[in-house]
Amino acid sequence: MPAGYEKIRDKFISKGKDGTALPESQIAKFDIFDAPGATVPNPTFIAIGTINGPFTTPTATFTTGTLLSGSQHTFMVSSTDTVGDVSAQSNLISVTVPLAGPAAIADLKVVLN
Predict the structure, then answer these.
(1) Which residues have a Cβ under 8 Å from the Cβ of 31 and sit 6 or more positions away?
(2) 106: in domain
(3) Number of structural domains, the chain?
(4) Strands 9-13 and 59-63
């Protein structure tokens, strides 16, 4: 991955209408959203991915594409169960991608006089 870029990875748990975790057999998909450059409380989200079932556990993991060093992102997830009910949005996760250090020196030369 180029210097100055990072991937963000997080874990989400799907919950039913009563607030309990859904059995994996009832989760159809997770939709992942990002609000790049946005700040809470009113970010504007764009869809960045979907994780489709079937699932073998009631959790799923999603890794973003590369993100520019120093950029700010706010993520949220919604889930859809097997009968088509869409959950409310998840809690928001705000991240500022750490600044990258300088690139490694690749052209070092020693000159002797």
Answers:
(1) 47, 49, 50, 77, 78, 79, 80
(2) no
(3) 1
(4) antiparallel
Indicate which CATH number applies to the domain containing 37.
Answer: 2.60.40.10
Where are the extended beta strands (E) located within the chain? 5-6, 9-13, 27-36, 46-52, 59-63, 67-68, 72-81, 93-96
Two tokens, residue 85: 């009910």
Q: For the full predicted model, state whether its pTM sits above 0.85.
A: no
Report pLDDT for 8.
47
Label residue 32 exposed, middle or buried (CB < 10 Å: 0-12, 13-18, 19+).
buried
Distance between CA atoms of 13 and 20, rounded to whole angstroms? 10
Q: How many CB atoms lie within 10 A of CB 63?
A: 10
Give residue for tokens 């991608």: 97
* Higher per-residue pLDDT: 50 or 40: 50
More confident residue, 78 or 60: 78
